[in-house]
Design a protein that fits this description.
Shape: elongated
Mean pLDDT: 94
Radius of gyration: 23 Å
Low-confidence stretches: none
Largest sheet: 4 strands, mixed
Strand content: 5-15%
Helix content: 40-55%
CATH class of the largest domain: Alpha Beta
CATH topology of the largest domain: Beta Polymerase, domain 2
Order of helices and strands: HEEHEEEHHEHHHHHHHH
Amino acid sequence: MKGLEIARAYWETCGQPMMEERFPELLPVAAAGLCGSGSECFGYDDELSRDHDFEPGFILFLPGENVVDRRTAFQLERAYAALPKEFMGMKRASVQPVGGARHGVIRMSDFFSDKTGYPDGSIPLQAWLKLPDWALAEAVNGEIFRDDGGQVTGIRERLSYYPEDVRRKKLAGNLLLMAQSGQYNYARCLRHGESGAAQLATGEFVRAAMQTVFLLNRVYQPYYKWSFRAMRGLPRLSLHAALMEYLLTTGNDGKLSAEKQDVMEGIAADIIEELQRQELTQAICGDLEKHAYSVQDGIRAGEIRNLHILAAV
């Protein structure tokens, strides 16, 4: 079973009965689920994932102290700690994982402040520009098993994806980086005899292209070690993950450099086609730089449009 399935089963078998018996007054204001850090929250866990920070558990989200006081929260923490130490053949860890608690009793405001800097998910427009994708992904991944009051669900809905002007700004910046690194600097570095610099240009192109693909799918890109896995599951342009792996894992000698240049141009062409399909660009050409500025021109909010084109990357 996947970690999310185990967490739900642990909640339904152990956590929910405990809440209904001992803390029924909290059910209208609390929530239970599993989200945040960890491969299991994305559904990416496998046998190897269980070698660290993996245990049966869930999060009990509590509102602020004006609704649930410290004494009650402490009692709930003790009740959670007293839940079975072993479930479905797995033991709960006796120490906290690196990075802090991933299970147990957590204030809603603390969880969402940790991920976004804003306790209720109400993020000012310009602040969206500086929030990392992986942190936003951790705020909305996983599952909420029970949320009678809907507070956690409501915050997650507010955080579900970037405002459109922010998406456009991020797209514009990444398209410009793709143009500079892949359509221009890669070949130029090789002509200078700088193979290492050419590989850096390749990496920059792949990083920006991958971010662009996630933006075009309206999906937050997770932490880098899961990015390829997540990209392979996207509905649009997912096949480019294999091409990007090829770019990163091959050298720049002989025919390879010409092949890699062709691959970059092919990725660029497909991305331009998707930009046009989504009516994000008015440019008609194969130059990603022109499309970058066209995407930026479509930003409605002047406070975002007038920032430097790379302000969001």
